[in-house]
Batch of 2 targets.
Target 1
Amino acid sequence: MTNKLSASVAGGTESPLLRRRSGFAHRRSESMGAYTLLLPFLLLLLLAGLIPAAYALWTSLVNRTGSFAGIDNYVNVVTDFRFTSTFLNVFATMVLYVPLIVIIAVVFALLIHASSRRLSASVRFIFYLPGAFAGIANFVLWLYILDPTVSPVRWIWSVLGYDSLGEVAQGSNVPMILSLILLFQGVGSWMLIVYGALNTIPEELIEAAELDGANAFQRAWLIVLPILKPWIAYLSIMNIAYALQLFLEPTLLGNATNGKISPEWTPNQLSFTFAYGVGDLGAAAAMSIILLVLTLGIGLFIVTRTDLFGDAE
Amino acid sequence: MMTTSSARLSKAARIATLLAASAVFVYLVSAFLLAAFRSQGDVVAGGIIDGLSFQNLVYNWQQIVGFGSGVFLIWLQNSLIVALFAAAVAVFAAVSGGYALARLRFAGRKSILFATLLTMVIPNTVLVIPIFLGVAAVGMVGKLLPVIIIMAFFPFGVYLAFIHFSSAMPKELVEAARVDGCSELGIFARIALPISKQPIALVFFFAFVADWTNYFLPLVLLPSTKSTTVPVGLQQMISQSQLYDPTAAAGLNVELYIPQLVLAALVQAIPVLIVFLSVQRYLVRGVTVGAVKG
């Protein structure tokens, strides 16, 4: 039945013209079906992505009275006395955080990959555990750890000579503290991703290298790392984009230390102050567009250059 | 002989490293969990197990619900409404959209796929302020609906469903159904949907966790104390705690110290845990693709 039907649709004795027309009709109904099925997602993309972005672009180009202002808002933002320092702050955090998470995620993925099934499963679970407290709950956990008066690791703070949260979270320590907070909640899932990538390496490849006399270190360095390279690139770039967007952790740390940390410590916080604190929507929009362009650049790089979504495209 | 002993040494070093790192995680997480069963006095005195009792847990909970005459429960309710509806819509959009991208041919398919990937790898915080500007322009700040709509946009879910249908549903199946006279929507409803348990569970889990823990969006779109969600509410508890703001806390009718804040954070983690446990068996299979968003 099916065979006969498909033979007739595929052409059989029909004229080429008829065949083309039926193919045409079929393709049109296929397109219509596809657009119908995609409609909810496309609507959401429009409402949550394109319209806000377009509206922000428009807002960034007009002044408070609604007339065209050119790049005035951008000039105001870039020359704001806090603008450069917000980027320097997130940069100082990235320089610590990105190498830390890349090295720890890759090294521990390699270690559990080489371990017995049981040990590997327990370590994976333990590392993933803090992921359940993502965001604010993880921050409360770190408040407890960082405050020398209550900390379960207060000996560390007393060795360093800190008596209060304000001393622990003083300016020069902030990038390190933020790195630890982010690392603690994120390293488990990144380790899982690298571990998943390791599992795709054919065992024969490793065995062949072993037979050729390569030791464990050589095998890791010469065979495994090159295969992991696109994943390491992805891990680094995603975390750079993530650090650029920091908001929750520095805001709350500033709250808890009674303003020891500036409420405009990161670009997103500065944007928030423009929008909420001083009601300068043009400046807030301009700041958002600057950040959007930077992250779009990072996103384009991941999608087109890292080879990770090769099949999907 | 040399190689076996050096191999044994490297095995011992590997296991020691894994155990030491795991011990750090276990110590910090259990200290955190146990703090909810202690009093502030116990926590200040030190250690991680002194003073454990259920009376402390009950007392700490009473402080939490006493804060702002029970506003914590309203936050929980708001969070549940927002996260459940947003995750449900995200699943609906992801499964139908992912299927269309994976198994149907149409003009614009590549561009839509590209836009999905691009928006997926961009942190969602980047559009929060622009979204605020738009929502404020239509006078909807303080309403749950815009928050639900914005959170329901979950391109990572579309990508997950796309991967699922690309690998789990042969093209020939679609062709055969089409030949049998099935409409495009009929094929989706009768053939694709019944084999979608895996992407539905995965997308629901990742969307729910992302929405439940989202802080920046509700902070901006739900600024008033009564209408907001747990993460933003927790931040208000932290900033009004006697620990961090003695002056503002003078008028506080409850104690908000470390044990109470820890318990509130743990209660916030419970729904995540429930969802995690109920979709666990799907996660095991899909965790490699699933973990991509981090």
Target 2
Amino acid sequence: MPAMTYLQAITDGLRSEMRADERVFCMGEDIGVFGGAFKVTDGFIDEFGPDRVMDTPLAESGIVGTAVGAAVVGMRPVCEMQFSDFISCGFDQLVNVAGKMHYRQGLAVPITVRLPTGGGFSGGPFHSQNPEAWFMHSPGIKIVAPATAEDAKGLLISAIRDPNPVLFCEHKFLYRRVKGEVEEGANPTPMRARIARDGDTLVVITYGAMVHTALEATAELEGVRVLDLRSLVPLDEEAILESVRACSKVVIVDEANELCAAGAQVAALVAERGFEDLDGPVVRVATPNVPIPFSPPLEQAVLPSVDRVKEACVELLEY
Amino acid sequence: MSSSSTDATLVDVVMPQMGVSVAEGTVAEWAKEPGDWVDADETICVISTDKIDTDLPAPASGRLTEIEIVAGETVPVGTVLARIDTGGKPGEAHAAEDVGPPEPRSEAAAATKASVQPEEKASGVRPQASGNGQGAKRFSPVVMRMAAEHDIDLSAIEGTGRGGRVTKKDVVAYLDEGGEAAAPLHIESPYKPDEREPEPAPGPAGDTLSRMRRSIGQHMKRSLETAATCTTWTEADMFRIEAARERLSLTALPLVARCAIAALREHPQLNAWLEGERYTRHDAVHLGIAVSLGDEGLIVPVIHDAHELSAEGLARRIKDLARRARAGELTPDEVRGGTFTITNPGQYGSIMATPVINQPQVAILDLEAVVKRPVVIDDAIAIRPMTIFGLSWDHRALDGVLAAQFLASLRRHVESWDGT
């Protein structure tokens, strides 16, 4: 199995789906000739041509709206947002058109929207956000968020093949920092949680880049499980509740702003359906409700750090 | 701990006072041998009084130098059983092999002191933490659930969480240690049918009966040889008891016990002892409840002054005694002085038995399964939860009419149960 970076794995997944299925095509800002802001589609225009690797105007609403139309007539578009933050401009097309099309008109909208998310590299308030919870609140949209190179490829393939609109949250911080062996060929990853490290004294439930933070934070603690959600919608409730049963102590880590983040939904689920398995308060570690600062020390201060996660785990273990 | 130092470094291990009425005890077995290192409060030997075995904790940390009383000997309270040399330290050579100069010895004593200190500190902190009522009395959902599932008294578990909180880990460890039988509360009759033929053992050698088994056998045999045992049965409608126990989330036992106490107050001739030709009638009801210890045998802890307790109060005492009986924590005083006994093996569906009287008492009540049966009420057939009460009584002390009157009274209280 070849070793790839997280970014190369996304490229590999997208390329293999485009080769396998000619209905699959890409749209986005500067993804063609330039190869994308992060070079995910570097060289694609040469292999697949400008009809399948379309450079678009700086108009997210147009990108998503066009994709919805193409999907309704049978295509499988993959849209790239340069930064996930800009999806707010395509919000109406995504939430009100794509998300509700099947409910209103019985039409499937198999679009994938790639959202480069997350901070940690001093990108400032417009280039560092984790907007997944905005869409969790909106019915009809699936959301996945890989933490490893293997899942980056596998979940992208699952997203493209899914008959629903799927937001693919690829974490920018992991692009070149995470590397792993990735199977050749198309192996879709199920939209279910995975145990990143097993244990039974406490479970850290998280996703995306925070999986790595959680693994590092708990490496020296005894028996701590790390549950990588991988998919936020659908949320793997059974895996979460099984981990609560096994561990009875829960720390939930979100890189997103704390208020109503994905982890808030997990906490609510645990409180409601895992109550009798709890041996301590459900603890959350997340970014406070502030814009992500540009200043590197300030940014590091607001994002959940290895130290903060570790401290939360130690506190709860001692409870 | 009754121990006194006879020397700067030698501490006596003495036969403790196990209960106010106990004057002597038997060393059942030694957990340590001379030359072994013992930590303070570690079990050094097992003391047996009557049917109760008690672990004797070491009075101090040190090396066990000599054993004065060998296993099997019975000695008065206060007798020196062994001596512990507190001048040694763990891992150090046997005192007899290494008679060192005083200097290293005092150093060693200092080392021992230092090694004991954290323990003292810890045990000094714990009661304070668990006694202040902050957090210690509150249990997390999983701990509450596990306690309910395994019928655990959480106050028996020492918490290692913050402020002495009992954590899930503590409960799991407690269960792993077999601190509580995972089986449901199980109260069984003190009578035993003939010993089953021993299972054909794979080898020719059989096992010697345990001390408890032998002791039960002696008691039962003596009772049958002593008393003129007769058994009388009566049938009772448990409808009100069943309704009440569901409402109160109790077993039927404490409610029936309450009725039996009321019936005993009306027929105090049964609340009595017959020792030879001496017959003593008791005003207070000290109620024995037979508790099965599984394969080990059974024991009959006594609820003293049971007539002063409500059904709920009886239930709590029964639960507590049963738990501590299984944990081996009963004191000799808690198995003495019973004036009447109830046995309750009905959860397996058996409907009648002939229990053996717990000497020197004169009667024992047997509570068996409650079974729905068609019964005739006012010339109509109704389905009622019925049970059969069996009373074994001593014909030397009383006659059958009194047994029948007692059972009629018990039945009246059971069938007219109004929640008191």
